[in-house]
Amino acid sequence: ALADLMEQKGIDVRVQTAIEMKEMAEPYIRLKAMSHLNKGRVVLFGCGTGSPYFSTDTAAVLRAAEIEADAILLAKNIDGVYSADPKRDPLAVKFDAISYDEVLSRHLSVMDSTATSLSMDNNIPVIVFALKDPDNIVRAAMGEKIGTTVRK
What we know:
The chain is α/β, with parallel strands linked by helices. The chain has helices spanning 2-8, 30-38, 56-66, 100-106, 113-121, 135-141, and strands spanning 13-17, 26-27, 42-46, 72-76, 81-82, 94-95, 97-99, 126-130, 148-151.
């Protein structure tokens, strides 16, 4: 569905997964992903790592590190990173940008601590934005400023 939406917007997309699904996606092969990227295509990764004990967030960061991604686009059910849960705390403040260290020290629920640490270790910015508007993914992929950026 996401790949179809992006293709409708004129973006050349390939989908790769850790678990074999020939009708839906290519198997994840790092060199093949790099080849697609070098041809100007967007590569979407699905199905985590295919291994237990790794969250999908950690899998996303792992794939980003493997392909030397410029950023991770993290679509969530909230429009960015807040100082507290805005559904529970009316005084919660949304950050335009925040550091990995601050996310970890404040225990903010952006993604799990393993994924956050791996992002920090590989210096990969994470752009957190709302999934509810499907156009946000295209906007983020095109570099438009949305949501919150987590970085050093």
